[in-house]
Design a protein that fits this description.
It is a single chain. The protein is globular, with a radius of gyration of 38 Å. It has 16 helices and no strands. The termini are far apart. It has helices spanning about 5-30, 30-55, 60-110, 120-125, 130-140, 140-170, 170-180, 185-225, 230-245, 250-265, 265-295, 300-315, 315-335, 345-350, 355-370, 380-409. The chain is mainly α. About 20% of the residues are buried.
Length: about 400
């Protein structure tokens, strides 16, 4: 056995063990890493407000605390208002549910010529297997649901804590990061940080603008239908659909549909149709254009980044995909060398036109090439051709003179 073979085997086994350990550690810490990433972008979003307060003499930690307190008060007040409204509407719906059921059964009987009764429908519903299985599964999953809720609260507190430290100690964090880099790299890192702050702020501005447009559109619809609490419902749809990715649209549309059902079941159907149509309009027309204006990226790039972020990291990736892409694009645009492009019709999107005369000349040339060669002529014919040629020259001269005369006239 060669002397180097045992060492090579031990080294290979050690490398495999380190790789497996790193993979295991990454999978164990993936939730923490995602929370830190969300906290970093949240700190970038609130850093302009913290810097504005710090420039006016407020300590940076206190300024960060005031910003978080304002966000917390606004969030709690909003959900408290919606919770009280939802509780009242659910109580009304439970009280009037038999009347709703009678109306639906009457419509079915008159339309489909059936003989259904409310008592029969209730008995069949209560004795159905799927309802009993659903209740049993829900009772068995109480502990799992409770654990999920507690885990979500813990993740929320983790994000809030890290974002507070990132925003409050932003200058210290940048100084610590730049202290391990050479001077020319420090400038690049600081510029990238500034670009990230600007792009994240632009992304939040675009989301706020789309939330305002969505809230106004749904408020107008609900107000025209006479649905109660139309302003609060419009605000709910705007905020939830924009700031909760992937499932935010369904959560936002479920509450107005539920409240509209208490007024008229047909109103609920119209609200559902409007939510679906508006969502398509927002996804394919409104969102790419507003995002391209505020974050300064192409609409196709914005749409593709959201799809890629969702595929990689789920809801978190969809939330931070656009600001991360905009930051990367702006950073690369600063350091990627660009060259001038010639002013050509093909660059403008139009193909150069070929002159018609050239095409005619090519056709004529093809015809002349296809003509068979003339047979050899006799001497008499040569003499006649010579005379004809002289006559042709005379005629051509006369025609040239005539042409010159016409030109002079």
């Amino acid at each position: 056995m060669p002397r180097w073979l045992p060492r090579a085997m031990v080294l290979a086994l050690a490398l495999v063990a380190c790789y497996q350990l790193a993979i295991w550690g990454f999978h164990q810490l993936i939730t923490l890493l995602l929370n830190v990433l969300i906290a970093f972008f949240l700190a970038l979003a609130i850093e302009p407000a913290v810097d504005w307060m710090a420039a006016r003499g407020v300590r940076r930690g206190l300024a960060t605390g005031l910003v978080f307190l304002g966000i917390l008060v606004a969030t709690v007040g909003f959900f408290t208002l919606l919770g009280s409204m939802l509780a009242g509407q659910i109580a009304t719906m439970v009280q009037e549910f038999p009347q709703y059921l009678d109306d639906v059964i009457s419509w079915i009987n008159s339309t489909l010529h059936t003989r259904l009764s409310r008592v029969e429908v209730q008995n069949n519903l209560l004795k159905s297997d799927w309802l009993q299985n659903y209740v049993q599964d829900s009772a068995n999953n109480v502990l799992a649901v409770s654990a999920t809720v507690l885990g979500s609260l813990f993740n929320l507190l983790t994000v809030a804590l890290f974002s507070f430290y990132f925003a409050a100690d932003g200058p210290r964090l940048r100084r610590a990061l730049c202290s391990v880099l050479p001077p020319h790299r420090q400038t690049e890192v600081l510029r990238a940080w500034e670009i990230a702050v600007a792009k994240t702020g632009g992304y939040l501005y675009s989301r706020g603008l789309m939330a305002l447009i969505s809230g106004i559109a749904h408020y107008v619809l609900l107000e025209l239908m006479g649905v109660p609490y139309a302003p609060a419902l419009g605000m709910w749809v705007g905020l939830i659909s924009q700031f909760i990715p992937t499932i935010g649209t369904y959560l936002a549309g479920a509450l107005p549909i539920l409240i509209a059902f208490t007024v008229n079941p047909w109103h609920a159907l119209w609200v559902f149709a409007f939510v679906v149509i508006y969502q398509q309009f927002e996804n394919y027309l409104l969102q790419p254009r507003i995002t391209a204006k505020t974050v300064d990226i192409h609409p196709a790039v914005a749409f593709g980044s959201v799809v890629a972020g969702t595929a990689l990291m789920g809801a978190v990736g969809a939330l931070i995909a656009i600001p991360a892409t905009a930051t990367l694009q702006a950073f690369l645009g600063t350091y990627v060398k660009r060259y001038s492009v010639p002013d050509d019709l093909r660059v403008r999107g139009r193909a150069p036109r070929r002159p018609a005369a050239g095409l005619i000349d090519r056709i004529r040339g093809t015809r002349h090439a296809e003509q068979p060669p003339s047979p050899p002529s006799s001497p008499a014919t040569d003499r006649n051709d010579g005379n004809d040629g002289n006559g042709g020259n005379d005629e051509s001269g006369e025609s040239g003179a005539a042409g010159g005369g016409r030109g002079s006239r």
